[in-house]
């Protein structure tokens, strides 16, 4: 039992370390792209520390550089609205007490949620949440500062394939929970809605629309009650972001 | 103006985060709704994975990235260690791009 616990903690540290390295590299790229698009260094670094949400930061830098600050705020907040339901889902892992909640909320990101949801019990959920959140906060911001200093040389993370690393990591963390049929149906229906609506809607909205997957268990109360969702979910075997 | 953008983004984003964490206790959610929270998180994470794997700024992400993610997902399905999944996905996409695949 004790050894098993220690092994689990060790593998968690290693897994978070792997994503931490990737986040470090993307953070560098954010720093480099930020200054390359004309933002002052202090603004790029400040944004990384106080916003701490990669997708919204990249989008904001692009829109500010294009002279559209209102769109930068609107699009960024639309993209980050998912953190509210995420917060509801991992509140127990953030912990009790104002101090933990105020600090812990700031390190709520996709990865800290994914690592937390993959844990079996309350103690390891809490450990996973804080380890992931704090580690990625540090690697993202240290990377950002280095990117600002190094500039162009570290701007292109696509050459390293890091854009494929993040969805693959999310899928790996999601897979165990997708063994449960209800979770699988809801998650796959949500992913399908998001992917299909992405070309049509502003960024951020498609991911929020994935919550419509929650309607599935509501409309399909009876066991074995058919429907298109069953056909979709059944054939897929839980490959969350499976390319067609 | 730049400062205003950064402050608005930071305050709004932190507001979403804190609101979720605090509302969990304040809202006396009925048990069936409470049981849906992990499902909601799974749907959002699956949607993030799906859109990040397949799309880029509203269009198709090309070939290299989806193939890289597919290799990673297959390895995860075969219960490969997490680090192997992530590194293989990145390496596949990087090598494909090196070979000129978009």
UniProtKB/TrEMBL annotation, chain A:
Name listed for the protein in its UniProt record: AzlC family ABC transporter permease
Main localization, broad class: membrane
PANTHER family in the cross-refs: INNER MEMBRANE PROTEIN YGAZ
Transmembrane segment boundaries: 21-45, 57-79, 128-151, 157-175, 187-211
Keywords in alphabetical order: Cell membrane, Membrane, Transmembrane, Transmembrane helix, Transport
Location of this chain's protein in the cell: Cell membrane
Family assignment from sequence similarity: Belongs to the AzlC family.
Membrane topology term: Multi-pass membrane protein
Pfam families xref list: AzlC (PF03591)
Species of the source: Phytohabitans maris
From TrEMBL, chain B:
InterPro entries: Brnchd-chn_aa_trnsp_AzlD
Source organism superkingdom: Bacteria
Membrane-crossing residue ranges in chain numbering: 6-24, 36-54, 74-96
Keyword entries, A-Z: Membrane, Transmembrane, Transmembrane helix
Name this polypeptide is given: AzlD domain-containing protein
Gene source species: Phytohabitans maris
